[in-house]
Amino acid sequence: MDETQQAAVAQMKEITNCNEDTAMDYLFRTNFDVEIAVRHFFEGTIPATMRDDQRSPTASTPSSSVTALPSPTEERRSSTTSRPVYTHIFDYLSKEFPQYDANKKSVFYKHQLQSLRNDLPTKNWKWLVAYIHDPNGSPDFLHSLFVSNFAEQVRTRGGVFFGCVMGSPDAAKLRPDSVFGRKRRSCVIVFVIKATSLTRKLMIEDLSNPQAVATNIDLALIDLITDEADRILRNREQNEARRLMEEQNREYQESLQRDLERIAKSKSEEEAAKRAQEEEERKQKETENRVEKVEKYKKSLLEDDTPSTGAHDLLIRFPTGKKVIKFNGDDSIEKIFQEALKSEMCPLFFQMHQSFPKKAVPCLPQWYFEILTLEELEPKEECLSNQSTFEQSGITHGSMVYVDNL
Predict the structure, then answer these.
(1) Which of 16, 20, 19 is closest to 39 using CA atoms?
(2) Is the pTM of this model over 0.70?
(3) Which value, to the nearest 10 degrees, does the dihedral of the CA atoms of residues 3, 4, 9, 11 take?
(4) To which H or E segment does residue 404 belong?
(5) Residue-wise pLDDT tens digits, 203-224
(6) I need a labelling partner for 206 at 20 to 30 A (CA). Which of 92, 213, 348, 387 fits?
(7) Cβ–Cβ < 8 Å for 174, 180
(8) CA distances from 189 to 40, 131, 133, 230, 257 (A)
(9) Is the separation of the CB atoms in 166 and 122 below 8 Å?
């Protein structure tokens, strides 16, 4: 390669920021015409290779001399080749970096941009982080994606990580500006997703430090999340103010309606109050009768001073003391209720439980359970007697039960 050709290669590399092999390929195909080679490079087209008898120091390939991508056979025959335009980054990885085939789906969104747009209405993605890879540039950042948690970091922030190759239709849609010109290189772009539209918020072109890029992207997503939270908060405050106003209006209307109803029913209110008083007196009487029934039962138990008998001991703990009773394994579990109620320490209304393991003791007779329910003391259903024995209930020698005051 003579000095003129070397100068053309250097000029091509400076203008396009491509590597020497790519510059040589374009210049070789255009007989080292830098202007035509650069135009084809930025247009993403591949100039047709001129025949040896067409080459001359001043000859150049016309602008219309464009051919299809070379076949694999032609690529193998060519001493210097240019990279094809890959429609999907998975195709690029399979061809250029097959070692990442197994992991590419865990890093990149698996379809093209149009499929991603179709997915947006059904996903909860708020951000799109797009990596546009320049095959002619450094692959360092691309490699870092497979050894770091960058993609997962994007997903945990509520985003989707998308990849495409420079020159593909998706890359042109995501970055349709003219900045690719002389600055044609890999970049990461952050978009805000609104419905199915994308708004660009950040673009990072210096990917030489993958760790710094990951940190900057994460900080950018945090800022976007904060902005989104502020927007949601403002909307919530506006909605709350609107709701309060509507509620106040509704309360006013309801209050007005109540006043009108009170005026209309002023004559019947006295009768209603009288009926309410009578109902209250009836309930009070029923309560007194229930209390009296329990007290009479308790009194009858207290009058019977016969000590409990049995082969086993059971400790009953009251809110203000304790008592030990004896029982046999085949005794009815309701014996615990009777022995507890016989004690002066026992409250009138109660239920019982064990602590280890903690569970209700099903010892309350049906009549007593109904009284607790009518008194609205909300006894546990598990405390209602199931006609079991001590042994069937798992209460053994040395067990302990607690009395809960209702």
Answers:
(1) 16
(2) no
(3) 110
(4) strand 399-405
(5) 898 899 999 999 999 998 998 8
(6) 92
(7) no
(8) 26, 7, 11, 23, 60
(9) no
